[in-house]
Amino acid sequence: MSGLKLSKISKKSGQQHILRSISFDQQHYKRMVIAGETGSGKSTLLKVIAGLAQADSGVVVFNNEVIKGPLETLVPGHAKIAYLSQLFELPKFLRVEQVLEYANLQSEKEANRLFKLCEIQHLLSRKTDELSGGERQRIALARQLLSNPELLLLDEPYSNLDIIHKNSLRKVIDKVLESTGIACILVSHDPLDILPWAEHVMIMRKGKIVQEGAVQHIYHEPADEYVAALMGKYNVVPKTFLKQLGKQKLKTNELLRPGSFKVSRRSSANAVEAYIESVSFCGSYFEVSVAVKKDSLTIYTSVQDLRSGERVFVSLN
């Protein structure tokens, strides 16, 4: 089966290790996310995959072809891999249709279909300096897709966008991937970008992959607090407290999400007394902080009208 495969990719900048023996196989996943804190190496890894950054060692293979770095080829990049940088630029003072025409390898019918998918057909006559950030991002995406890629690499595509344009771009990317069937690797550090979208997640830290797997597995069973924090809010729950809640045979404390608990005004089996510290309205739920003896937990709940200082009972979902 063809696809993307990395084997022991390493890269240094001076004495600093940027990438440390990265290996993975993407062929089984259409939607993969590379996540990590700033400086973890995720953007550099994406450039190496695209053939736009030179690895010191290791091999990148796409569709049974070795991807060469910029020191190994006259024109960096691969014809079937599209890379959209976080810092993309569109040529100034040109009409959008001119920018897209220069990049187009598709028939007029296919190109128009793509413009409709990217929701830019009404922007073709505008100049690039007359566009909003979200419009520029959709046009930059369309320009990459006009080359008929089989793999799309997106580096923080939602950064610097307000919520309206971010949601619009999410819908466009989903429609494009569903319609074309191409695979996509997205770099992000935002759980709101990762959780609803990814099939497979790789977590990077200091140039290494520290955990990878299905998105639900990463979310509910993070390897450590670093991974847990990247995927959203979490609690470090002492094993003594977990035993009170009915969990047995525990060797260590556990990392549990706010949705792992429930709050009630009534006591029940394996419920523990607690007191409300704070309540925050989050739209479809409330985020509450509760004090349990010397510990504090963050919990998501639908219980209405909770007040600071109120006695409640906490149990596991």
TrEMBL record:
The keyword Manganese is assigned to this record: no
Presence of the UniProt keyword DNA repair in the record: no
InterPro entries: AAA+_ATPase, ABC_SmlMolc_Importer, ABC_transporter-like_ATP-bd, ABC_transporter-like_CS, P-loop_NTPase, Sigma_54_int_dom_ATP-bd_1
Every ABC transporter domain range: 4-231
Pfam families, per database record: ABC_tran
Keywords linked to the UniProt accession: ATP-binding, Nucleotide-binding, Transport
SMART domains: AAA (SM00382)
Molecular-function GO terms, alphabetical: ATP binding; ATP hydrolysis activity
Stated name of the protein: ABC transporter ATP-binding protein
Source organism of this protein record: Chryseotalea sanaruensis
Phylogenetic lineage: Bacteria, Pseudomonadati, Bacteroidota, Cytophagia, Cytophagales
